[in-house]
Amino acid sequence: IAWWAKAISLYVLCFPALDVISAFPLNAITLGNNMMVSAYGKRIHEVEKNKCIRTQFRLLASVPPILFGILQRQLGKITDYAGTTGFVIGFSFPALLYLRSRMLAERKHFSAVTFYSGYASYKFGAWCLFSFGVAMLLYVVFFLVRDGLSYEE
């Protein structure tokens, strides 16, 4: 086999790992910062300069994936479980965002009907979409766990 074919093969083999290594710190820092904002809300400006608190949230965002990556070495299983978040992101979160924004609009005596309101802009539809996302998440996780247990036997 030619040297350049081996080099291309090595590049193709190592690229996913190098890509994750380069993106992981950026994602962990962003997730840690977002978790800190969620925890402190309006008080974020008081604590965001505190290096200890900021480091704790960034560690909370970065350590669990590393630990689970050490425990589970099969990439296929990791992507199977990680893919289940698509149901929550695609179905449940948008419905929750709609319900929350509608509640805040009503609380401030704003109209819940906007330029973007349409046939799907109803609480019942949002609850159905949220329920569908959660049900699909549970369904897929159930079968992933069941299939994982059947392979181990």
Describe what you observe in this structure:
With 153 residues, this protein is an all-alpha fold. Helix content is 82%, strand content 0%. It has helices at 3-40, 44-47, 51-71, 75-83, 85-107, 123-152. Helix 1 (3-40) crosses helix 3.
Give the arrangement of secondary structure elements.
Blueprint: H1 3-40, H2 44-47, H3 51-71, H4 75-83, H5 85-107, H6 123-152
Annotation keywords:
153 residues, mainly alpha
In short:
With 153 residues, the chain is an all-alpha fold. It is 82% helix and 0% strand.
Order of helix and strand elements from N to C terminus? HHHHHH
Report strand %. Answer: under 5%
Per DSSP E runs of 2 or more residues, the count of β-strands stands at: 0
Summing up helix and strand content along with how strands pair, one would put the structural category as mainly alpha
Q: What profile does the largest beta sheet have?
A: none
Averaged pLDDT: 88
Shape: extended
Distance between the termini: 41 Å
Oligomer: single chain
> What percent of residues adopt helix (DSSP H or I)?
over 70%
Per DSSP, the total helix count is 6
- Which stretches are poorly predicted, pLDDT < 50 over at least 5 residues? none
- What is the radius of gyration? 22 Å
